[in-house]
Amino acid sequence: MRNNPYTALETRFRRYSALSGAGAVLGWDQETMMPPGGAEARAEQMAVLDVLQHELLSDPAVEEELVEAEAAATALEPWQRANLREMRRVHTNETVAPAALVDARSRATSACVNAWREARKADDFSAVSDKLARVLELTREYGQIKAEKLGCGLYDALIDSYEPGGTMARIDPIFATLKAELPGLIDKILTAQAAGPRALEPEGPFPSERQKALGEKVMAALGFDFTHGRLDESAHPFTGGIPEDIRITTRYDEADFTRALMGVIHETGHALYEHGLPAEWRGQPVGSSRGMVMHESQSLLMEMQACRSPAFYRFLAPLAAEILGASGPALSPENLNRLGHRVSRGLIRVDADEVTYPLHVMLRYDLEKALLADDLKVKDLPGAWHEGMRNSLGVAPKDDRDGCLQDIHWYHGSFGYFPTYTLGALAAAQLYRAAKDALPELDSRIAGGDFAPLLSWLGENVHRKASSRLTNEILSEATGAELGADPFLAHLCERYL
Amino acid sequence: MRNNPYTALETRFRRYSALSGAGAVLGWDQETMMPPGGAEARAEQMAVLDVLQHELLSDPAVEEELVEAEAAATALEPWQRANLREMRRVHTNETVAPAALVDARSRATSACVNAWREARKADDFSAVSDKLARVLELTREYGQIKAEKLGCGLYDALIDSYEPGGTMARIDPIFATLKAELPGLIDKILTAQAAGPRALEPEGPFPSERQKALGEKVMAALGFDFTHGRLDESAHPFTGGIPEDIRITTRYDEADFTRALMGVIHETGHALYEHGLPAEWRGQPVGSSRGMVMHESQSLLMEMQACRSPAFYRFLAPLAAEILGASGPALSPENLNRLGHRVSRGLIRVDADEVTYPLHVMLRYDLEKALLADDLKVKDLPGAWHEGMRNSLGVAPKDDRDGCLQDIHWYHGSFGYFPTYTLGALAAAQLYRAAKDALPELDSRIAGGDFAPLLSWLGENVHRKASSRLTNEILSEATGAELGADPFLAHLCERYL
Q: What would the pLDDT profile of B103-130 be if each residue is shown by its tens digit?
C-alpha cells in the first residue's frame, strides 16, 4: 500500500526540521564557543546541512506529494491543512530559484559581506559598491523568478521571505501615517524632555558576571525556562537554538548595565515566543514562528512595552541595586525610567530610541525599493542616504560608516527585511494594548515581577497559533483589528507627553 | 563523461566526514552546554545525521564505485590506495549489518545503558542482567555477520571496530607476558614504596578557575593550539570536536588539583594527535586517526610517559605554586613525583595506577571472550568477576557496584574495546622509548617546559601517518618493532624500582 502523501510529507519535514535544528545549534556555537580556527570546517558542515535540506525538498517526489495532498486536503484536520499550506510555502522558498542562481547569490553575498566589513572599517563605500551592485542584480533576478511564481510584485516577493503576507500595499499606508505624525511628535517630545529633569548616569563599573546574574534573574521573572535554554555572550546579540533549547546571547558594557539588560529582555521576548510554540506541532512548518513581524513584536513587546514601563522599573530598581551591589539616586525607579525614555535624533539605527526608530527604517524602505526598481543607482546611495537623513531626522552623517555602511542587510542580500522592524514595533504596541485591556492588573503584576498573566495571554493569543494563521489574522483575533499605526502612536503620546 | 569512481568516492566521503564533524560538535555541546530540556530534540538531530550518514554509504552506487576503483587501484597515488582501503573499511562497518539488526542493537543497548545506571546506583546486577544478555546476543549476531564478511573469528571481528588489525592471535601472547611478569613486579614495587617516604597531600581547596588556568598553561606548553580548540567541563572527561576545532573537557575536584590536571594532559594527548593529522587528507578516511590503540597511546604517552616524569614535575612545581597560589613541601617536584607514582591494588579500573591497570583490563578481556563464546553465562558474571579480581589483583569487591557494574562498556555493547587501553599503554611506552633515543635532550627540554621536540617527533612518526598504515606498521617504522610488552615492563622497572 502506498503511503498517504500528506503523512509522507510530515515525515520528510520532520527530518528537514531536525537538520535545520542541528544547523541552529552549530550556528550558535560558531558565534559563542568556536575557536577561530574552526571557521572553515564549520562553514563546510553548515553548507552540507544546507545541501541536504535542499535535496530533501527538491526531490521531485515532494512536488507530487504536495499536489496529491492538496487535492485531498478536505479530508485533513484544519491544522493539517494549515501545515500543508506552510509546507508549500517552505517548498517554494527552497526550490523556486535554479541551483545556479542560488549558488551565485550565495557566493556574491559572501564576498560582499566580507568586502563590507573592510569598507566599513575604512569608511570607503567605493570599495564595496561594485559587489553590492552585483548582489542587487542577483537579488532582483531571484525576486523576479519568485514574483512570477507567486503572481506578485518584485518587492512583495522579497518581503515574503521574511514576512508571509507582507506587501507594499499594506505597508505603504501605515508608513504614510507614521511619516505624517512622527516628525511633529518628535519635536514635542524633545521639547518636553528638555524641560524635564536630566537622567543621571549610574556609575559603574558593573562587572559582567553581576550583569549576567541580573539578566538571568530578569529572564526567569519574564518566564524564561533555564531547563530549556541558556544565556551566553557574543559579539552581536541574537536568539538561536530551537524551541526546546533556546540560546540567547548578549554583550556586556561594564560602564552601562542597562544596554545588556535591555538586550537580554529583547532576546527573551524572542525566546519566549519560540519556546511557546505548540509542542504538538514540533518539527512541522505550521509549528514554526509566523514571520519576522510577529517575532519582532514579541521581543519589542517585552523590551519596549512591558519593560521600559514605570511599573517594570519599580520591580527592577531594588533588584539591580542588590545584584549589582550599587546604590544612589541613579538607580531609583524614576531615574531608570528617565534613562530608558531618552529620545534623540541620532545617526545609527541600532542605537535609536523607539520614537525615532521608524524614521531610520522608512528611509531604508524607500531606498531599497528605489534600488530594486533601478530608480536609484548603487553609486548614488551615499548621497541619497545623506539627503534622506537630513529630510526625515534632520541630522546627516559626516561619513558613510555612520551612513549607508552601518547595516549589514543589503550587503548580505536581505532586501525587504527592514520594514519588519517597524511593523513589529507597531504590532507590539497593538498587542500590548489588547493585553492591558484584558488584564487590568497588568501594571501592578509587572511591578511585582509577576509576568505570568502576560505570558499566558501571549501564549494563548500569539505563541500557540504559530504559523496556523497569517500575521494579520493573528492580530485581528487578538486585538480586533489588522495591523495599524494608531496604537503605537497612542503609546508614544502616553509615554512621552 | 562518467565521473572517475575514485573521485566520486572522495566527494562522497567528504560529505560523510562533514556530517560526522557536525555530529561531533553536537555531541560535545550535549555534554557541556546543552540544558537538560534539549535532550530529546538533540537525540533526534543526531539520529537524523546518523541516518543520513548511513544512507550516503548504503547507496548501491558506493559498492559499485568501490569495486571499480579497486580494479583500477594501480593508477592511484599510494595515499589514494590507502584511502580506498580505508573507504572499504568504513563502508563495511557502516553496511555489514542488516538495518533491522542495527536498529535492534541500538534499542537494546540504549535500554540496557539506562537500566545499568539504575542497577549501578542500587547495586543490583539482577536488575540489568536480562538486558545485558540481550545486548550480548545481538552483539554476537552482529559479530558473526561481520566475521563472515571479513573471514575472521567472532572476537576479532568485534575488535576490528575499534582497532583495525587487532586480533586475539596478536593480543594473547602480549597479555601472557604481562600476566607472567606484573604480579611479581607489583609485589616488589609495593615493598619498595612502603620503605620510601610517604607522599604528602597538597592542601586545598584549589578553586576550579585556578585549576583551569593551570590546565590551560600546561596544555599550551604541550603544544595545544587554542585557536583550534578549547577546554571545558563535563561530568565525564573526553576529547571531542574535529581536528581543526578540538574540544577537550575535564572536571575539577577542589580538594585535589592533580586529578583534573592529569586528566587534561591525557585529553591533550588525544587532541594533539587529532590536530596533527595531515591537513591535506582532511575529510578522507585515510586522514583519520588510526584506531583506539594509537589514540590511547598518544594520551598515555603524554600523561604517563612524559608528564608523570621527574623532569615534568620540575617544570610543573613552580608553575602550580604560582597559578594555584599555593606553597609548601607538598608542592615540591619530589613530592609531586611521589604523588604521581603511588601504586596500589584497587577495585576500580579508572582509578588504577599504570602498574596495576593492565590486570583490570585483562580480567575484562578474559571475561568478555568467555561471555561471547558462551563459556560464561551473564548470570554468573558477578561471581567470575569476584574470582578474577581475587586471582589477579588479590582484592575483591564487596558488591557489584565496585565489580562488574563499574564500567559502561558491555552494557553499551562495546565488546572488544577493553584491550585497547592496555595495548595503548604498551604502545606509549614503546614510542616514548624510541623518542628518547632519538632526542637525547628530551628530559631537560621537558623540565624546561619545552615539548616542541617531542611533538615534532610524534608528528612525523605517528600523527601525520594517520590511517595510511596499520598500527603495527606505524610502530615498526617508528620504533623498529611491532607492538610488544617489553618497553612497558622496562619503563615500570625504571620508574618504580
A: 999 999 999 999 999 999 999 999 999 9
**Mean confidence (pLDDT) of chain B:** 97
Residue B199 has pLDDT above 70, yes or no: yes
B149 forms bridges with which residues in the sheet? none
Concatenating the DSSP letter of every residue in A25-72 gives: HHHHHHHHT--GGGHHHHHHHHHHHHHHHHHHHHSHHHHHHHHHHHHT
Of all residues in chain A, what percent carry a pLDDT higher than 90? Answer: 99
Compare CB distances from B245 to A19, A38, A244 and report the shortest one's residue: A38
Does the pLDDT value for residue B89 go beyond 70? Answer: yes
CA atoms of B229 and B249, how far apart (whole Å): 11
Low-confidence ranges of chain A (pLDDT < 50): 1
Do B49 and A25 lie within an 8 Å CB cutoff? Answer: no
Q: Which of A415, A418, A325, A327 is nearest to A376 (CA)?
A: A415
| Average pLDDT value for residue range B131-139 | 98
Whether A477 is catalytic is no
Contact status of B22 with chain A (Cβ, < 8 Å): yes
Q: Is A173 on the interface with B (CB under 8 A)?
A: no
Exposure pattern of B230-253 as b/e (b: 16+ CB <10 Å)? bbbebeebbbbbbbbbbbbbbebe
Residue type, B494: E
Are A426 and A169 within 8 A, CB to CB? no
Domain A165-497 maps to which CATH number in 1.10.1370.30, 1.10.580.10, 3.30.70.1150, 1.20.1260.10? 1.10.1370.30
- The DSSP symbol for A203 reads P
Chain B interface mutation, best of A33, A226, A228, A277, highest count of B Cβ atoms under 10 Å? A33
Walk across the sheet containing A229-233 and list its strands: A229-233, A245-250, A239-242
Specify burial of residue A293 (Cβ count, 10 A radius: 0-12, 13-18, 19+).
buried
The CATH code belonging to domain B163-497 is 1.10.1370.30
Place of cell 616524569: B309
Distances (CA, A) of A3 to A73, A233, A370, A462: 15, 46, 49, 34
User: Distance (Å, rounded) from C-alpha A70 to C-alpha A20?
Assistant: 25
Nearest to A366 by CA among A429, A406, A422: A422
pLDDT of residue A459: 98
Transcribe A418-435 into DSSP letters: THHHHHHHHHHHHHHHHH
Q: Does B59 touch chain A (CB under 8 A)?
A: no
**What pLDDT, in 10s, does the model give residues B283-324?**
999 999 999 999 999 999 999 999 999 999 999 999 999 999
Strands B245-250 and B229-233: parallel
Report CA dihedral (A126, A128, A134, A138) to the nearest 10 degrees.
-140
> What's the CA gap between B265 and B261, in Å, rounded?
6
Rounded to the nearest angstrom, the minimum Cα separation between B25 and chain A is 7
Q: What is the pLDDT of residue B2?
A: 56
pLDDT beyond 50 at B1? no
What lies within 8 Å, CB to CB, of A136 at 6+ separation is A371, A372, A378, A410, A415
Q: Which three cell numbers stand for residue B139?
A: 552483539
Tell which phi-psi region holds residue B230, choosing left (phi > 0), alpha (psi between -120 and 50) or beta. beta
**Does any CB of chain A come closer than 8 Å to the CB of residue B230?**
yes
Q: CA nearest A44: which of B243, B212, B178?
A: B243
Span B232-271, pLDDT tens digits: 999 999 999 999 999 999 999 999 999 999 999 999 999 9
The three grid cell numbers given for residue A84, joined into one nine-digit string: 500543508
Q: Supply the pTM of this predicted model.
A: 0.95
Q: What is the model's pLDDT at position B387?
A: 98
pLDDT of residue A1: 42
Task: Flag if B19 and A228 touch (Cβ within 8 Å).
Answer: no
Burial of residue A327 (number of CB atoms within 10 Å: 0-12, 13-18, 19+): exposed
What percent of chain B is modeled with pLDDT above 70? Answer: 100
